[in-house]
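Example record for the data management plan.
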Amino acid sequence: MTPQVVVTCGVGGVGKTTTAAAFGVAHALAGARVVVVTIDPARRLADALGVSLTSHTPERVPLDDPSICGTLSAVMLDRKAMWDSMVRTLAPSADAADRLIHNRYYRAVSTRLTGSHEYMAVELLHALVAEGAWDVIVLDTPPASNAEEFLRAPDRVRRLLDRRVLEALTGSAGGLFGGATRKALGLARRLIGERVFDDIQEFLGLLSAISEQVVAHNAAIDKLLASRSTAFYLVVTVNHGRDDDDARFIETLRERGIRFGGFVANRVHEQPPPIQRFDPHPPPGVDPAAWAQWVTVLGALPAAAAREAEHDRRAAERLASGGDSVWCLPEVPGGAHSVSALRRLAERLPPR
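Corresponding structural encoding:
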């Protein structure tokens, strides 16, 4: 059975990691076996869940709440370890995998290639689905200039790993190495050094050897993302409003057949509860002028909070103007750094 997949996207600083953790708690409350995946190097998810996330395997989150009948685990993506795992899975032999993993240019690509964080995130997602141990997988995504970057970055890596590109660089009929004359090859070896030249050529050749498997693997991942069991949520602040980046992101999802679950508006102010009026008469020994000033200042706070809440309510309505669902999460003073705080947010998220 294919697990349910929840992906939280958005620009940096809007609370994606907290939202991902709250989604995890929400599904655990419903009795599911849940794992939350983060690729956030700031480790905010680990802080919120009270786990270390120091290994590349899911770590059980201590819930300490008997009313939560499901389980919750979390894992932080180790980009290099995930690259190595993919190579060992797809390489034609253990020897070929070892040679590629120990190639110094592979090490550079697996740790510094633009887009590889996002690419390895979906690879980890695929691996967790293949395990069959989870009912729900929640994927937190990295900060980006816009949410669409999460979808574009893996595509760029896939194009680099395309066999036609790699064979154009190494093939005997042409390319960077294959098309050069013996004299030109000799010159290239002398300019960049024999070992460097051979390492680059071996690196490209070994990548080419796994390219067909990469294509097949990617097809499985694309099928997973387009499954009805997968939903992407765009996390925003309530004052964000709808903009062109949001529209492009939603349109890109729909072009790829991916379900858009809606907006999660974070840090929404709520209507304050009614409070008793302050006694205008100061207690004995208190300066009347100072007391009157405090009564005026504090007495104005409920009305100011109500105006702020009304502003946020109208902003959420504008966000929903395109017909998409909007889920509002309240402001949590000091941040949601415990399972109990995350539970308060989880109760506001989409029904399971």
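Summary line stored alongside the record: The CA atoms of residues 47 and 337 lie 6 Å apart.
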